[in-house]
Amino acid sequence: MKTEYENPLITRYSSKEISEIFSPDYKFITWRKLWIALAESEKELGLNISEEQIEELKSNINNIDYKKAKEMEKKFRHDVMAHVHTYGEQCPKAKGIIHLGATSAFVGDNTDVIVMKEASILIKNKLINLIDKMSKFCLKYKSLPTLGYTHFQPAQMTTVGKRASLWLYDIYLDYNKLIFEIDNIKFRGVKGTTGTQASFLNLFNEDSNKVVKLDKLVAQKMGFDNIHPLSGQTYTRKQDFDILASLSSIAQSLHKITNDIRLLQHLKEIEEPFNKDQIGSSAMAYKRNPMRSERISSLAKYIISNLMNPALIYSTQWFERTLDDSANRRLSIAQGFMACDAILNIATNIFEDLVVYENVIKTNIDKELPFMATENILMESVKKGGDRQVLHEKIRLLSMEAAKEVKEFGMKNNLIDKIKNSNKFPLSDNEIDNIINPKNFIGRSEEQVEEFINEYISPILKNNKEVLGVNIELKV
Fold first, then answer.
1. Is 281 among the residues known to form the active site?
2. Does 151 qualify as catalytic in the annotation?
3. Catalytically annotated residue among 281, 315, 422, 458
4. Sign of dihedral through CA atoms 152, 156, 161, 167?
5. Residue 386 sits in which domain range?
6. Is residue 431 part of a domain?
7. Does residue 415 lie within any of the structural domains?
8. CA distance 430 to 420
9. For residue range 221-252, what is the model confidence (pLDDT) as tens digits?
10. The domain spanning residue 428 has which CATH number?
């Protein structure tokens, strides 16, 4: 019997990979890596730290006694000091040099930066796989005419691929924003209790150059070239906002995309994958609900609203630091990433097998295209000697008649037949049929799709081909 709350982001939605990045093991092993990097760097700069002490720290890096750490935290009410003491008991020779000169934010903040960067790279790789699936869909349907909609009212024609390329363009913008954040994420470094590096200046006998070198050495050992030039006790929480804003941007795009898919599924033009044994409704057995798109919509709302958390945290920090950020960040950062991971998994799954019903699309075009084509028919008739004013009035009357039959009696739109049967238009039936070919109304849709994919998308896929081919299996 399960009697405790379980986070559905872990049990139902997100991948194992993202959960591992935010796991206790990843966090506390990274703390120990930071303590080792600090000790190594301090030794290299002349402090009295032995190789034996460092080797002892390294040999116990994965040997975390969580039971002891929990007891210590209950005693000290301080998670970092609990792990300092736990690590020290396992490494008696190195006990005195663990965390030397550092404050809690040294491991806490730097680990958060490392974790967010690693999670962002995972999100980037999943975004690339989604881009790959979407681009193939765009190219496959680049020339298939479909009704365009403005205000969800039939408008000028587009193509299925062109509409999807609009979705993909937004994802492309999200990709660029995420890449910017990954490239610019900064390490907190070794800054001391209030960011002044006073404790390290004291350790190195007022040698400022060594303190500067220490900051850079530790960052380099942890894989960072970018370091915050200034900090209080913590790095500026604006960085959290910027990173979570990139997740919000992805969520906004996928919310819009899946809203469109839900509307198109209502029109029976496009349908998300539906498994053989899937049940759409417990009551209505015939239903095929767009549950994947709806799930994305639901989780995307959470991600978008979650952006309020880092905004509020940053704006309410006092001076060099207050601790009212800690509990919030434990929730908002991890869960924001896990939810984003989930919606990318679901979206990739959708675009792997998104179904297009071409005959339904054609039927819907046939309902509206006759009205759209009247201007073209009028122009061609005038070219062949017809009187524009006379023909315009005739088309107006025939259009009103056809519209009345469609709206009041549910009849098929037979405006083209009415025009053909009229003796007012100097055009043959074949000439009229050629005019109303849907492909005559899609403009440069096909070329736009090809140009966009070739110029903007293909380079991304080419430069990241090693991450393509992720196998997505949804838990539910």
1. yes
2. yes
3. 281
4. negative
5. 360-441
6. yes
7. yes
8. 10
9. 999 999 999 999 999 999 999 999 999 999 99
10. 1.10.40.30
